[in-house]
Amino acid sequence: MSRLSRKLLSRPVALAVSAALVVALLLVAFLAPLPFTVMQPGITADTLGSYQGKQVITISGHAVRPTSGQLRMVTIAATAPQDSLSIWDALSAWPDPDRAVVPRDAVYPSGQSLSEINRTDQQQMTQSQNDATAAALGYLHLNADQVKVQLRLADVGGPSAGLLFALGIIDKLAGNGGGGDLTGGRTVAGTGEITSDGQVKQVGGVALKTKAAARDGATVFLLPSVECSEGRADTPAGLRLVPVDSLAQAVSALEAIDAGRGAVPSC
Description:
CATH topology of the largest domain: Ribosomal Protein S5, domain 2
Structural class: alpha/beta
Number of strands: 12
Helix content: 25-40%
Number of domains: 2
Strand order of the largest sheet: 6-1-5-8-11-12
């Protein structure tokens, strides 16, 4: 075989090898895990009702009133901390307005194992429940030694349900103070960490949480005032945003909405 013939034969082989390497590199790039996670609207749960067959709020030591309407806490669903995200997953989620691709560290604490992440979530939820109980009983001037509150919300972690826990406790114990419900029979949703003295703090993810709320029938959405800009960026039709800085403001806003008069803050 001539030298020219060998060169002609070797060129296709080289091209084939190069193409195979390119394909292999692309596959590695598309399948390699990325330090990102995908978030989307999660479940909502009515703090006045039951979740997974158990009452969310159980109260003893004080008369409990029947309620109508709903007070729904909302969540965000995210890629599980033990699961990886490929570039293909990220690119497919990027243009979807109901999903957000964010750095993993924005959702899960950096350097923590799965068990540590779960433990942190549960610790935050427990603290949130304790603070919500203290804030609600403090608002109503009730003694925590005589009124016992138990909160149950299986498989949900973090502090963002605090405001809705506190409102649920108040509605079950006192309603609007005039014989009616805080909700006025509406489906109210919201988010916000709460302190034991009733201050409402930022939690994040409002744009996705409003979508979960609207999907599950809410017409009013309570949120920390500092998160108004995020909330109104893509507010679902028919959902009224009501910013608050405290539990007292949230109660007053719901009473004003029900009465149809008085100042109601808006984003």
